[in-house]
Specification:
Growth Hormone, Chain: A; 19 helices; about 475 residues; mainly alpha
Amino acid sequence: MRDLKLSPKPNSYILALKINPITRWIYGSAGVSYGVVDNAHYFTLLYYSQVLGLDARLAGLALSIGLVFDAITDPLVGYLSDNTTSRWGRRHPFLYASVLPLALSYFLLWHPPPFVQDDTSMFIHLVLCLLALRGSLTLFQVPAYALCAEITSDYDERTRLFARYSSVQSIVGNGMSVLMYALWLVPTTEYSDGIMNVEGYKVAGLVGTLAIAASVLLFTIGLHRFIPRFSRFQPSDALGPRQFFRQLADVFRYPSMRVVVVSWMLYYAGSGIYAMLWVYIYSYFWEFTSQQISLIVIPMALAGLLIPPLLSGLASGHEKKRVAVLGMSAAILVNVFPIAMRLLGIFPANGTAFLFWILLVLGVFETVFFLVFDVASSSMMVDITEQAELDTGRRSEGVITSAVTFAGKCAYALGTFLGGVTLSLVKFPTETTVGDVAPDIIFDLGLVYGPLILVIFLGSVYAISRYQISRVQHEETIARLEGR
Protein backbone atom coordinates (compact mmCIF):
# COMPACT_ATOMS: atom_id res chain seq x y z
CA MET A 1 0.00 0.00 0.00
CA ARG A 2 1.59 3.25 -1.17
CA ASP A 3 1.05 6.45 0.84
CA LEU A 4 3.53 8.71 -0.88
CA LYS A 5 4.25 9.16 -4.53
CA LEU A 6 7.96 9.93 -4.66
CA SER A 7 9.87 11.34 -7.54
CA PRO A 8 13.15 9.69 -8.53
CA LYS A 9 14.75 13.10 -7.95
CA PRO A 10 15.97 13.03 -4.33
CA ASN A 11 14.87 16.59 -3.53
CA SER A 12 11.70 16.71 -5.60
CA TYR A 13 8.42 17.91 -4.21
CA ILE A 14 5.04 16.53 -5.27
CA LEU A 15 2.03 18.64 -4.33
CA ALA A 16 -0.51 15.86 -4.93
CA LEU A 17 0.75 13.60 -2.15
CA LYS A 18 -1.82 11.00 -1.18
CA ILE A 19 -1.87 10.15 2.52
CA ASN A 20 -4.27 7.38 3.45
CA PRO A 21 -6.47 7.51 6.59
CA ILE A 22 -4.42 4.85 8.39
CA THR A 23 -1.27 6.93 8.08
CA ARG A 24 -3.11 10.02 9.31
CA TRP A 25 -4.29 8.21 12.44
CA ILE A 26 -0.89 6.63 13.06
CA TYR A 27 0.53 10.13 13.00
CA GLY A 28 -2.29 11.23 15.28
CA SER A 29 -1.44 8.50 17.79
CA ALA A 30 1.45 10.72 18.94
CA GLY A 31 -1.22 12.80 20.66
CA VAL A 32 -1.89 10.03 23.21
CA SER A 33 1.38 10.49 25.08
CA TYR A 34 1.16 14.26 25.03
CA GLY A 35 -2.50 14.15 26.06
CA VAL A 36 -1.66 12.01 29.10
CA VAL A 37 1.23 14.26 30.15
CA ASP A 38 -0.78 17.42 29.49
CA ASN A 39 -3.66 16.12 31.61
CA ALA A 40 -1.21 15.31 34.40
CA HIS A 41 -0.19 18.95 34.44
CA TYR A 42 -3.71 19.85 35.60
CA PHE A 43 -3.51 17.52 38.57
CA THR A 44 0.15 17.60 39.62
CA LEU A 45 -0.14 20.86 41.56
CA LEU A 46 -3.35 19.63 43.19
CA TYR A 47 -1.82 16.25 44.05
CA TYR A 48 1.39 17.58 45.55
CA SER A 49 -0.04 20.65 47.33
CA GLN A 50 -3.52 19.61 48.43
CA VAL A 51 -3.02 15.85 48.87
CA LEU A 52 0.67 15.42 49.75
CA GLY A 53 0.96 18.78 51.51
CA LEU A 54 3.78 20.42 49.54
CA ASP A 55 3.73 24.23 49.60
CA ALA A 56 1.90 25.44 46.47
CA ARG A 57 4.74 27.83 45.61
CA LEU A 58 7.28 25.00 45.68
CA ALA A 59 5.02 22.78 43.59
CA GLY A 60 4.52 25.56 41.05
CA LEU A 61 8.26 26.24 40.99
CA ALA A 62 9.04 22.54 40.41
CA LEU A 63 6.58 22.40 37.51
CA SER A 64 8.14 25.52 36.03
CA ILE A 65 11.66 24.08 36.31
CA GLY A 66 10.55 20.95 34.47
CA LEU A 67 8.95 22.97 31.70
CA VAL A 68 11.99 25.24 31.30
CA PHE A 69 14.25 22.19 31.01
CA ASP A 70 11.82 20.72 28.48
CA ALA A 71 12.00 23.95 26.50
CA ILE A 72 15.80 24.19 26.59
CA THR A 73 16.22 20.69 25.22
CA ASP A 74 13.83 21.33 22.32
CA PRO A 75 16.24 23.24 20.01
CA LEU A 76 19.05 20.79 20.79
CA VAL A 77 16.96 17.75 19.89
CA GLY A 78 15.56 19.56 16.85
CA TYR A 79 19.04 20.41 15.59
CA LEU A 80 20.42 16.93 16.25
CA SER A 81 17.48 15.22 14.56
CA ASP A 82 17.88 17.49 11.52
CA ASN A 83 21.51 16.49 11.21
CA THR A 84 21.51 12.83 12.25
CA THR A 85 22.47 10.14 9.75
CA SER A 86 21.57 6.55 10.62
CA ARG A 87 20.04 3.45 9.09
CA TRP A 88 16.83 4.51 10.88
CA GLY A 89 16.85 7.95 9.29
CA ARG A 90 17.01 11.28 11.05
CA ARG A 91 14.08 11.05 13.49
CA HIS A 92 13.52 7.44 14.52
CA PRO A 93 16.60 7.00 16.76
CA PHE A 94 15.19 9.73 19.00
CA LEU A 95 11.68 8.30 18.90
CA TYR A 96 12.83 4.86 20.03
CA ALA A 97 15.08 6.35 22.72
CA SER A 98 12.16 8.16 24.35
CA VAL A 99 9.99 5.14 25.20
CA LEU A 100 11.47 3.83 28.45
CA PRO A 101 12.43 7.09 30.22
CA LEU A 102 9.11 8.70 29.32
CA ALA A 103 7.03 5.86 30.76
CA LEU A 104 9.20 5.33 33.86
CA SER A 105 9.36 9.00 34.86
CA TYR A 106 5.59 9.36 34.51
CA PHE A 107 5.05 6.36 36.80
CA LEU A 108 7.38 7.72 39.49
CA LEU A 109 5.67 11.11 39.37
CA TRP A 110 2.56 9.55 40.92
CA HIS A 111 4.35 6.95 43.05
CA PRO A 112 6.92 8.77 45.21
CA PRO A 113 9.10 6.45 47.32
CA PRO A 114 8.23 6.05 51.03
CA PHE A 115 11.17 8.23 52.14
CA VAL A 116 9.69 11.24 50.33
CA GLN A 117 7.86 12.90 53.22
CA ASP A 118 8.88 16.49 54.00
CA ASP A 119 8.85 19.54 51.75
CA THR A 120 12.53 19.26 50.82
CA SER A 121 12.52 15.63 49.73
CA MET A 122 9.15 16.02 48.04
CA PHE A 123 10.32 19.07 46.10
CA ILE A 124 13.53 17.31 44.98
CA HIS A 125 11.60 14.20 43.93
CA LEU A 126 9.08 16.27 41.98
CA VAL A 127 11.81 18.23 40.19
CA LEU A 128 13.75 15.07 39.23
CA CYS A 129 10.63 13.34 37.93
CA LEU A 130 9.63 16.37 35.90
CA LEU A 131 13.13 16.82 34.45
CA ALA A 132 13.15 13.19 33.28
CA LEU A 133 9.55 13.32 32.06
CA ARG A 134 9.91 16.56 30.13
CA GLY A 135 13.31 15.68 28.72
CA SER A 136 12.15 12.34 27.36
CA LEU A 137 8.95 13.95 26.04
CA THR A 138 11.18 16.26 24.00
CA LEU A 139 12.96 13.26 22.48
CA PHE A 140 9.60 12.13 21.17
CA GLN A 141 7.62 15.29 20.47
CA VAL A 142 10.16 17.32 18.48
CA PRO A 143 10.92 14.58 15.90
CA ALA A 144 7.20 13.73 15.73
CA TYR A 145 6.33 17.32 14.87
CA ALA A 146 9.15 17.52 12.33
CA LEU A 147 7.96 14.37 10.54
CA CYS A 148 4.81 16.19 9.40
CA ALA A 149 6.90 18.36 7.07
CA GLU A 150 8.69 15.26 5.74
CA ILE A 151 5.55 13.22 5.14
CA THR A 152 3.96 15.83 2.87
CA SER A 153 4.48 19.31 1.47
CA ASP A 154 0.78 19.75 0.67
CA TYR A 155 -0.73 22.89 2.24
CA ASP A 156 -3.97 21.20 3.35
CA GLU A 157 -2.63 17.73 4.11
CA ARG A 158 -0.36 19.08 6.82
CA THR A 159 -3.41 20.58 8.51
CA ARG A 160 -5.17 17.21 8.31
CA LEU A 161 -2.22 15.44 9.95
CA PHE A 162 -2.08 17.94 12.79
CA ALA A 163 -5.87 17.72 13.11
CA ARG A 164 -5.54 14.02 13.93
CA TYR A 165 -2.73 14.71 16.36
CA SER A 166 -4.66 17.42 18.20
CA SER A 167 -7.88 15.42 18.08
CA VAL A 168 -6.26 12.42 19.76
CA GLN A 169 -4.44 14.62 22.25
CA SER A 170 -7.66 16.36 23.25
CA ILE A 171 -9.70 13.17 23.49
CA VAL A 172 -7.08 11.43 25.59
CA GLY A 173 -6.29 14.44 27.78
CA ASN A 174 -9.93 15.20 28.52
CA GLY A 175 -10.75 11.49 28.65
CA MET A 176 -8.18 11.05 31.41
CA SER A 177 -9.90 13.88 33.30
CA VAL A 178 -13.21 12.04 32.96
CA LEU A 179 -11.66 8.90 34.37
CA MET A 180 -9.99 10.88 37.14
CA TYR A 181 -13.27 12.29 38.39
CA ALA A 182 -15.57 9.38 37.50
CA LEU A 183 -13.41 6.43 38.61
CA TRP A 184 -10.33 7.47 40.56
CA LEU A 185 -10.98 10.73 42.45
CA VAL A 186 -14.19 9.55 44.06
CA PRO A 187 -15.20 9.78 47.73
CA THR A 188 -14.54 6.74 49.89
CA THR A 189 -14.98 5.90 53.56
CA GLU A 190 -11.46 7.23 54.09
CA TYR A 191 -11.71 10.28 51.81
CA SER A 192 -14.97 12.23 51.95
CA ASP A 193 -13.67 14.58 49.22
CA GLY A 194 -12.71 12.71 46.04
CA ILE A 195 -9.87 15.08 45.09
CA MET A 196 -8.07 14.04 48.29
CA ASN A 197 -8.10 10.33 47.32
CA VAL A 198 -4.38 9.54 47.09
CA GLU A 199 -4.92 6.00 45.79
CA GLY A 200 -6.87 7.35 42.83
CA TYR A 201 -3.87 9.38 41.67
CA LYS A 202 -1.68 6.29 41.85
CA VAL A 203 -4.04 4.21 39.73
CA ALA A 204 -4.22 7.02 37.20
CA GLY A 205 -0.42 7.09 37.13
CA LEU A 206 -0.23 3.41 36.25
CA VAL A 207 -2.86 3.66 33.50
CA GLY A 208 -1.14 6.73 32.07
CA THR A 209 2.21 4.95 32.03
CA LEU A 210 0.83 2.09 29.96
CA ALA A 211 -0.92 4.48 27.56
CA ILE A 212 2.26 6.50 27.02
CA ALA A 213 4.39 3.44 26.25
CA ALA A 214 1.79 2.02 23.85
CA SER A 215 1.30 5.27 21.93
CA VAL A 216 5.00 6.01 21.46
CA LEU A 217 5.60 2.49 20.17
CA LEU A 218 2.58 2.62 17.85
CA PHE A 219 3.69 5.93 16.33
CA THR A 220 7.34 4.96 15.99
CA ILE A 221 6.83 1.44 14.67
CA GLY A 222 3.86 2.50 12.53
CA LEU A 223 5.97 5.04 10.64
CA HIS A 224 9.14 2.94 10.61
CA ARG A 225 8.39 1.58 7.15
CA PHE A 226 8.55 5.12 5.74
CA ILE A 227 12.18 5.61 6.77
CA PRO A 228 13.50 5.04 3.21
CA ARG A 229 11.14 7.74 1.98
CA PHE A 230 12.09 10.14 4.77
CA SER A 231 15.71 9.60 3.81
CA ARG A 232 15.28 11.69 0.67
CA PHE A 233 16.18 14.60 2.96
CA GLN A 234 19.82 14.18 3.92
CA PRO A 235 21.78 16.36 6.38
CA SER A 236 24.03 18.82 4.58
CA ASP A 237 26.11 20.22 7.45
CA ALA A 238 28.47 18.82 10.06
CA LEU A 239 27.38 18.92 13.70
CA GLY A 240 28.79 21.67 15.89
CA PRO A 241 27.79 24.56 18.19
CA ARG A 242 28.58 27.17 15.56
CA GLN A 243 26.41 25.43 12.98
CA PHE A 244 23.62 25.05 15.51
CA PHE A 245 23.42 28.79 16.19
CA ARG A 246 23.78 29.54 12.49
CA GLN A 247 20.78 27.36 11.60
CA LEU A 248 18.78 28.84 14.47
CA ALA A 249 19.58 32.38 13.34
CA ASP A 250 18.69 31.51 9.75
CA VAL A 251 15.13 30.50 10.56
CA PHE A 252 14.52 33.61 12.65
CA ARG A 253 15.24 35.77 9.62
CA TYR A 254 11.70 35.17 8.45
CA PRO A 255 8.91 37.44 9.77
CA SER A 256 6.45 34.55 9.74
CA MET A 257 8.74 32.57 12.03
CA ARG A 258 8.95 35.44 14.48
CA VAL A 259 5.21 36.05 14.66
CA VAL A 260 4.46 32.35 15.16
CA VAL A 261 6.96 32.28 18.02
CA VAL A 262 5.40 35.33 19.69
CA SER A 263 1.88 34.00 19.20
CA TRP A 264 2.78 30.63 20.70
CA MET A 265 4.54 32.29 23.63
CA LEU A 266 1.41 34.22 24.52
CA TYR A 267 -0.89 31.27 23.80
CA TYR A 268 1.09 28.93 26.02
CA ALA A 269 1.57 31.49 28.78
CA GLY A 270 -2.20 31.74 28.97
CA SER A 271 -2.54 27.96 28.66
CA GLY A 272 -0.13 27.47 31.56
CA ILE A 273 -2.25 29.65 33.81
CA TYR A 274 -5.39 27.93 32.54
CA ALA A 275 -3.94 24.47 33.16
CA MET A 276 -2.79 25.25 36.68
CA LEU A 277 -6.06 26.85 37.75
CA TRP A 278 -8.59 24.74 35.80
CA VAL A 279 -9.20 22.31 38.66
CA TYR A 280 -9.43 25.17 41.14
CA ILE A 281 -11.91 27.05 38.96
CA TYR A 282 -14.19 24.06 38.46
CA SER A 283 -13.83 22.60 41.97
CA TYR A 284 -13.69 25.72 44.14
CA PHE A 285 -14.98 28.62 42.03
CA TRP A 286 -17.97 26.78 40.51
CA GLU A 287 -18.17 24.21 43.35
CA PHE A 288 -18.84 21.23 41.12
CA THR A 289 -18.51 17.75 42.58
CA SER A 290 -16.13 15.20 41.10
CA GLN A 291 -19.06 13.48 39.41
CA GLN A 292 -20.30 16.73 37.87
CA ILE A 293 -16.84 17.62 36.60
CA SER A 294 -16.51 14.20 35.00
CA LEU A 295 -19.83 14.75 33.21
CA ILE A 296 -18.69 18.18 32.00
CA VAL A 297 -15.43 16.79 30.69
CA ILE A 298 -17.05 13.92 28.75
CA PRO A 299 -18.41 16.16 25.93
CA MET A 300 -15.15 18.14 26.04
CA ALA A 301 -13.32 14.90 25.32
CA LEU A 302 -15.75 13.94 22.57
CA ALA A 303 -15.38 17.42 21.05
CA GLY A 304 -11.97 16.30 19.79
CA LEU A 305 -13.78 14.00 17.36
CA LEU A 306 -15.13 17.07 15.57
CA ILE A 307 -11.69 18.42 14.75
CA PRO A 308 -10.66 16.19 11.78
CA PRO A 309 -13.87 16.76 9.74
CA LEU A 310 -14.11 20.41 10.83
CA LEU A 311 -10.51 21.23 9.92
CA SER A 312 -10.74 19.28 6.68
CA GLY A 313 -13.54 21.61 5.65
CA LEU A 314 -11.91 24.77 6.96
CA ALA A 315 -8.51 23.87 5.52
CA SER A 316 -9.81 23.34 2.01
CA GLY A 317 -9.58 26.63 0.14
CA HIS A 318 -9.06 28.83 3.20
CA GLU A 319 -6.00 30.57 4.59
CA LYS A 320 -4.61 29.02 7.77
CA LYS A 321 -4.09 32.46 9.32
CA ARG A 322 -7.79 33.27 9.13
CA VAL A 323 -8.70 29.92 10.62
CA ALA A 324 -6.26 30.44 13.52
CA VAL A 325 -7.52 33.96 14.27
CA LEU A 326 -11.14 32.79 14.20
CA GLY A 327 -10.43 29.86 16.51
CA MET A 328 -8.56 31.83 19.16
CA SER A 329 -10.96 34.79 19.13
CA ALA A 330 -13.93 32.51 19.72
CA ALA A 331 -12.08 30.55 22.41
CA ILE A 332 -11.31 33.76 24.32
CA LEU A 333 -14.96 34.78 24.34
CA VAL A 334 -16.16 31.40 25.59
CA ASN A 335 -13.42 31.12 28.22
CA VAL A 336 -13.73 34.55 29.81
CA PHE A 337 -17.49 35.13 29.53
CA PRO A 338 -18.67 32.90 32.44
CA ILE A 339 -16.04 34.27 34.85
CA ALA A 340 -16.92 37.87 33.97
CA MET A 341 -20.64 37.24 34.38
CA ARG A 342 -20.15 35.61 37.77
CA LEU A 343 -18.00 38.50 39.03
CA LEU A 344 -20.73 40.90 37.90
CA GLY A 345 -23.28 38.84 39.81
CA ILE A 346 -25.46 38.00 36.81
CA PHE A 347 -24.67 34.31 36.35
CA PRO A 348 -26.59 31.33 37.74
CA ALA A 349 -25.74 30.42 41.31
CA ASN A 350 -23.52 27.51 42.24
CA GLY A 351 -25.35 24.26 42.75
CA THR A 352 -28.05 24.97 40.15
CA ALA A 353 -28.73 22.71 37.19
CA PHE A 354 -28.75 25.75 34.87
CA LEU A 355 -25.12 26.55 35.74
CA PHE A 356 -24.10 22.96 35.12
CA TRP A 357 -25.64 22.80 31.64
CA ILE A 358 -24.33 26.21 30.59
CA LEU A 359 -20.75 25.32 31.47
CA LEU A 360 -21.08 21.88 29.92
CA VAL A 361 -22.10 23.40 26.57
CA LEU A 362 -19.53 26.20 26.74
CA GLY A 363 -16.83 23.65 27.54
CA VAL A 364 -17.45 21.88 24.24
CA PHE A 365 -17.17 25.08 22.22
CA GLU A 366 -14.09 26.19 24.16
CA THR A 367 -12.34 22.90 23.43
CA VAL A 368 -13.17 23.01 19.72
CA PHE A 369 -12.07 26.63 19.27
CA PHE A 370 -8.76 26.16 21.08
CA LEU A 371 -8.04 23.07 18.98
CA VAL A 372 -8.82 24.96 15.76
CA PHE A 373 -6.19 27.53 16.68
CA ASP A 374 -3.68 24.88 17.75
CA VAL A 375 -4.00 22.88 14.53
CA ALA A 376 -3.92 25.87 12.19
CA SER A 377 -0.95 27.50 13.90
CA SER A 378 0.98 24.20 14.00
CA SER A 379 0.45 23.73 10.29
CA MET A 380 1.55 27.33 9.68
CA MET A 381 4.73 26.59 11.63
CA VAL A 382 5.87 23.70 9.41
CA ASP A 383 5.10 25.68 6.24
CA ILE A 384 8.13 27.81 7.06
CA THR A 385 10.31 24.77 6.26
CA GLU A 386 10.25 25.18 2.49
CA GLN A 387 10.69 28.94 2.61
CA ALA A 388 13.89 28.45 4.62
CA GLU A 389 15.07 25.62 2.36
CA LEU A 390 14.62 27.77 -0.73
CA ASP A 391 17.10 30.30 0.69
CA THR A 392 19.54 28.04 2.54
CA GLY A 393 19.30 24.71 0.70
CA ARG A 394 18.90 23.06 4.10
CA ARG A 395 16.03 21.08 5.61
CA SER A 396 15.52 22.59 9.07
CA GLU A 397 12.06 21.40 10.10
CA GLY A 398 13.45 20.11 13.41
CA VAL A 399 15.06 23.45 14.23
CA ILE A 400 11.94 25.36 13.17
CA THR A 401 9.44 23.29 15.15
CA SER A 402 11.70 23.03 18.19
CA ALA A 403 12.38 26.77 18.25
CA VAL A 404 8.65 27.45 18.30
CA THR A 405 7.94 24.79 20.92
CA PHE A 406 10.91 26.08 22.95
CA ALA A 407 9.35 29.52 23.12
CA GLY A 408 5.93 28.05 23.86
CA LYS A 409 7.19 25.85 26.66
CA CYS A 410 9.16 28.66 28.29
CA ALA A 411 5.99 30.70 28.24
CA TYR A 412 3.98 27.73 29.53
CA ALA A 413 6.46 27.45 32.41
CA LEU A 414 5.95 31.13 33.15
CA GLY A 415 2.19 30.64 33.02
CA THR A 416 2.47 27.64 35.33
CA PHE A 417 4.49 29.65 37.80
CA LEU A 418 2.01 32.53 37.56
CA GLY A 419 -0.77 30.05 38.31
CA GLY A 420 0.97 29.12 41.56
CA VAL A 421 1.68 32.78 42.31
CA THR A 422 -1.99 33.59 41.71
CA LEU A 423 -3.00 31.06 44.36
CA SER A 424 -0.52 32.57 46.79
CA LEU A 425 -1.56 36.11 45.86
CA VAL A 426 -5.19 35.46 46.72
CA LYS A 427 -4.05 33.52 49.82
CA PHE A 428 -5.67 30.28 48.66
CA PRO A 429 -5.33 27.74 51.52
CA THR A 430 -3.78 24.28 51.15
CA GLU A 431 -5.34 20.96 52.21
CA THR A 432 -8.81 22.56 52.14
CA THR A 433 -11.94 20.87 50.85
CA VAL A 434 -14.47 22.46 48.49
CA GLY A 435 -16.87 24.76 50.32
CA ASP A 436 -14.43 25.63 53.10
CA VAL A 437 -12.65 28.45 51.24
CA ALA A 438 -13.72 31.99 52.13
CA PRO A 439 -15.99 33.65 49.49
CA ASP A 440 -13.72 36.70 49.17
CA ILE A 441 -10.79 34.43 48.24
CA ILE A 442 -12.91 32.71 45.58
CA PHE A 443 -13.95 36.12 44.21
CA ASP A 444 -10.34 37.30 44.09
CA LEU A 445 -9.34 34.13 42.22
CA GLY A 446 -11.81 34.91 39.43
CA LEU A 447 -10.89 38.62 39.47
CA VAL A 448 -7.22 37.84 38.79
CA TYR A 449 -7.77 34.92 36.42
CA GLY A 450 -10.27 36.49 33.98
CA PRO A 451 -8.49 39.72 32.96
CA LEU A 452 -5.08 38.04 32.93
CA ILE A 453 -6.20 35.33 30.51
CA LEU A 454 -8.05 37.85 28.33
CA VAL A 455 -5.04 40.13 27.79
CA ILE A 456 -2.60 37.30 27.10
CA PHE A 457 -4.79 35.47 24.59
CA LEU A 458 -5.67 38.67 22.73
CA GLY A 459 -1.95 39.28 22.28
CA SER A 460 -1.66 35.83 20.70
CA VAL A 461 -4.41 36.65 18.21
CA TYR A 462 -2.74 39.88 17.16
CA ALA A 463 0.65 38.18 16.67
CA ILE A 464 -0.65 35.33 14.50
CA SER A 465 -2.56 37.82 12.35
CA ARG A 466 0.83 39.15 11.14
CA TYR A 467 1.78 35.80 9.52
CA GLN A 468 2.80 36.27 5.88
CA ILE A 469 2.88 32.86 4.12
CA SER A 470 -0.29 32.36 2.10
CA ARG A 471 -1.49 29.29 0.22
CA VAL A 472 -0.35 30.78 -3.10
CA GLN A 473 3.07 31.73 -1.73
CA HIS A 474 3.58 28.25 -0.29
CA GLU A 475 2.72 26.55 -3.58
CA GLU A 476 5.02 28.92 -5.48
CA THR A 477 7.85 28.04 -3.09
CA ILE A 478 7.28 24.31 -3.63
CA ALA A 479 7.26 24.83 -7.40
CA ARG A 480 10.57 26.70 -7.26
CA LEU A 481 12.12 23.93 -5.16
CA GLU A 482 10.84 21.32 -7.58
CA GLY A 483 12.39 23.19 -10.48
CA ARG A 484 15.87 23.08 -9.01
